[in-house]
């Protein structure tokens, strides 16, 4: 399983040390198993991938991911059991893909490419056709796979948006814990200033992770974001995460407020926010694509986090996003625990979806 990218300091006199391993799938209750991460340096360095290769943890993650996507997996897998390669199979596959929330565009693309592959390679059995579909789906989703890079700026400012109920605040808490495990100091900004429950929830995550939360009752969300960036700069904090009020993209005045927050963050630090993320509930189907379009138009998103892939989620919406609005997917989540939020890996996702 892949983890965050980070910078490794390089000096003229010494050979670079082996990159530390980010314990992305290590539960917080077992700190003894957490490898130590070397501090980031401001010196020029090249980005180095850090890979978590703990096989038992990877198997556990894949088991849970497969369980979360079983609704679609079971439907697709049964189609290829003893099936003939004919129009009836393609029609059933089309229906299954549409039911998985892949959308018309992605479904038509996959079927067209699959038929071409079957003809060119003279595939005669269902297992070979299923394997070809897996390859096509991985190729479709691969552009969404992008590693999250730490240490590019200090502080690295992240603005995080999403509709109410998408799991935005919980995701912020999980990301904070992941970053701390990679030796990053974190500050949270409670930008949802009008909902006491939202501020309190973020405060709980802050206490749980021993992270400072800057909050302001009934204040200007943009002012809270600005103050948080200034505080992080003064205190030498590595990462600032700005929570914003959950809203529907149809609430135009609230979308304008998001644009204002982003502009004000930029005044607080040149080039900020460095990451503008949207958290999406994986159970919302094609509505998730609508959200991506609206928030991307308003904020120019740099990445997505797909949550709640452990319920009735069908998973196909990632194919729709890849075809219509290919914003990178940094992380996917399948549960409430810290280790249930992991970097998105296209091959792993397709394996869980198709088996």
Automatic annotation (TrEMBL):
Function: Involved in targeting and insertion of nascent membrane proteins into the cytoplasmic membrane. Acts as a receptor for the complex formed by the signal recognition particle (SRP) and the ribosome-nascent chain (RNC). Interaction with SRP-RNC leads to the transfer of the RNC complex to the Sec translocase for insertion into the membrane, the hydrolysis of GTP by both Ffh and FtsY, and the dissociation of the SRP-FtsY complex into the individual components.
Gene Ontology cellular-component annotations: cytoplasm; plasma membrane
Subunit structure as annotated in this protein's UniProt entry: Part of the signal recognition particle protein translocation system, which is composed of SRP and FtsY. SRP is a ribonucleoprotein composed of Ffh and a 4.5S RNA molecule.
PROSITE patterns: SRP54 (PS00300)
Keywords: Cell membrane, Cytoplasm, GTP-binding, Hydrolase, Membrane, Nucleotide-binding, Receptor
NCBIfam families from the UniProt entry: ftsY
Family statement: Belongs to the GTP-binding SRP family. FtsY subfamily.
Pfam families named in the record: SRP54, SRP54_N
UniProt GO BP: SRP-dependent cotranslational protein targeting to membrane
UniProt topology in membrane: Peripheral membrane protein
PANTHER family the UniProt entry points to: SIGNAL RECOGNITION PARTICLE RECEPTOR SUBUNIT ALPHA
Name of the featured protein: Signal recognition particle receptor FtsY
